[in-house]
Specification:
Helix content is 74%, strand content 1%. The protein has helices spanning 3-6, 9-30, 38-46, 48-79, 85-91, 100-111, 116-125, 140-164, 168-176, 181-192, 194-210, 213-217, 223-232, 237-262, 284-314, 323-357, 360-369, 377-394, 408-431, 436-444, 449-478, 481-486, 494-503, 511-539, and strands at residues 80-81, 280-281. The longest helix has 35 residues, at 323-357.
Length: 540
């Protein structure tokens, strides 16, 4: 066999892309072997314990709460007919449109001492101006609430899919044992969907550890706030990298535990004699109870922040919708769409390489390219900065000043690494619909390489292509920590603009960019709702 057949461009490209993707991460991890400065000694002696403790408390609290909300709501909409069920099936994912930092800002406006809710409470209960009805929300417990009610849909979606695959036999066993519906849920259903529950919770944990905007606004000292302050407060990139490496090691440890716990575990009880789970129709108090259980998460995670943003907008000087706003919106959308197109093309090339070469090596590489989704944007940004500084100083030094560092290249690079998993999953689903016989027929007609990709595969994958662009665009628009660090001087996005206004306590001005982010964030909700409605039709 010729070497060109063994190692072609379709092998080289995935390897090259993998090296690019993991380079910033390897740079971060290598910092552990470097020298430790006085700043590190200070952090180690005085604040590192707080970073560890607060991060663990935050992740633990959020994990417990999302497991409860996500599993219970998924169980209810899967197993009962009640008033509003058809809406709640997809409505429960609406909080995904609101990033945690925006929910944090709106909750501050609602529940601060002179916030909307305390003002309403004072008028109802005749309280003094210095008296409050709602307690202070800007603490770690407020952060737990914020993350839980924006991120629980991850658990809900995965658990719902798992519950749909449970067999009627499980209920028959439960009734034989004399178990009530709650006990069937606790003793039989939950243990079976444990892998799904763990998978969803792990995604939430990654998102929580990655966040900067919400914990910074609530003054909760975590690893992400520590990394940011070390870099921008102490101007110590090396120590920031060492902190980032600790967080990265912890995340890797969590991922290993998650993978181990799911090994050889089943998500369902499907067998040859599978019968769908019976759906019980509820009336009166039962229907009302299920309605309230499903409505409360949507109300807290979506309705309340929308009401507060509308309140800001009514009090808002519309003069903000000027050239500056539209310039920021243009920056955001153009950069997001460009990043999404590049990310989508990369995912298309990788998945085509897997299909075209049928290589176990490329199949092995592809999951590692998804690692960017689990790496916090702040850590990724630190690694990219260090990588670009090295390239500028050692390889691109013929250019005057820095060519890569401080440019839009860093932002686009970070967005692609962070969002590749979304684009990849879309293409993997698309390629499952293309029969191998189509490729065989095309090769008989001498169609191969790029010709096969663009003339045969692409027309079939157009839906996957545009869906990927929309999903990645929506995700990039919400990205805050990586954008804060990597953006060029005086370059703002909607997320950065919202953060700046909120950090300066100018909540009313934050209404416009926050609204734009939410509107764009509703795009994947639209697609997910269509998928859920389609699955409901298949079930019926």
């Amino acid at each position: 066999m010729q070497f060109s057949k063994i190692f072609s461009i379709w092998h080289a490209l995935p390897i090259f892309i993998l090296l690019l993707f993991i380079a910033p991460i390897l740079i971060i991890l290598s910092s552990v072997l470097g020298d430790y400065s006085e700043n590190w000694t200070h952090i180690y002696n005085y604040v590192l314990t707080d970073y560890i403790f607060n991060s663990l408390i935050l992740v633990s609290g959020v994990s417990i709460l999302v497991m409860f909300i996500g599993s219970v709501t998924a169980w209810i909409v899967t197993n009962y007919h009640f008033f509003g069920k058809s809406f709640f099936e997809w409505g429960l994912i609406l909080p995904l449109a609101i990033p945690p930092y925006i929910l944090a800002y709106t909750f501050t406006g609602l529940f601060d001492s002179y916030g909307t809710m305390n003002e309403i409470a004072r008028s109802i209960f005749n309280l003094q101006q210095n008296e409050v009805f709602f307690p202070n929300i800007r603490n770690i417990f407020g952060a737990i609430i914020v993350f839980s009610f924006t991120l629980y849909p991850y658990v809900y979606l995965i658990c719902r899919a798992a519950f749909l695959n449970q067999s009627r036999s499980m209920f028959e066993v439960g009734r034989t044992l004399g178990l009530s519906q709650p006990l069937i849920f606790l003793r039989l259903a939950l243990p079976i969907v444990r892998p799904a529950l763990i998978a969803g919770t792990m995604i939430v944990a990654m998102e929580t550890l990655s966040d900067f905007g919400a914990v910074d606004h609530f003054a909760v000292s975590t690893f992400t706030t520590g990394i940011f302050r070390t870099w921008y407060g102490m101007y110590d990139l090396a120590t920031a990298m060492q902190l980032a490496s600790m967080l990265l090691i912890f995340i890797t440890f969590c991922l290993v535990i998650e993978r181990t716990s799911r090994k050889n575990a089943s998500f369902s009880t499907i067998s040859s004699n599978f019968k769908p789970t019976p759906v019980k129709r509820l009336v009166s108090l039962g229907s009302l109870g299920c309605f309230l259980v499903c409505f409360i998460p949507i109300f807290i995670g979506f309705v309340l922040p929308i009401i507060e943003i509308l309140n800001w907008s009514l009090r808002f000087n519309t003069g903000f919708f000027d050239e500056q706003f539209f310039s920021i919106a243009f920056n955001t959308i153009s950069l997001s769409v460009l990043s999404a197109i590049l990310c989508t093309f990369i995912a298309m090339i990788i998945n085509f390489s897997i299909r075209y070469q049928n290589s176990s090596a490329i199949k092995f590489i592809n999951p590692f390219l998804n690692i960017g989704y689990a790496v916090p944007g702040l850590i990724l940004a630190v690694g990219i900065v260090q990588l670009f500084v090295f390239l500028d100083n050692n390889i691109l030094n013929s250019f005057e000043g820095y060519f890569l560092t401080g440019s839009l290249f860093g932002l686009i690079f970070a967005y692609i690494i962070k969002s590749y998993a979304l684009a990849n999953s879309t293409y993997e689903a698309g390629y499952q619909k293309i029969s191998q016989t189509l490729d065989d027929s095309a090769r008989v007609l001498k169609s191969k390489g790029l010709n096969l990709l663009f003339r045969v595969h692409f027309p079939i994958l157009q839906t996957s292509f545009f869906t990927s662009i929309l999903l990645v665009t929506s995700e990039v628009v919400k990205e805050l920590p990586a954008t804060l660090i990597l953006r060029p001087f005086n370059f703002e996005t909607l997320a950065v603009s919202t953060y700046i206004y909120a950090s300066e306590e100018r909540m009313i001005e934050a209404a416009a960019p926050a609204t734009a982010i939410i509107i764009i964030g509703l795009i994947p909700i639209f697609f997910l709702s269509r998928m859920i409605r389609a699955s409901r039709l298949e079930e019926s």
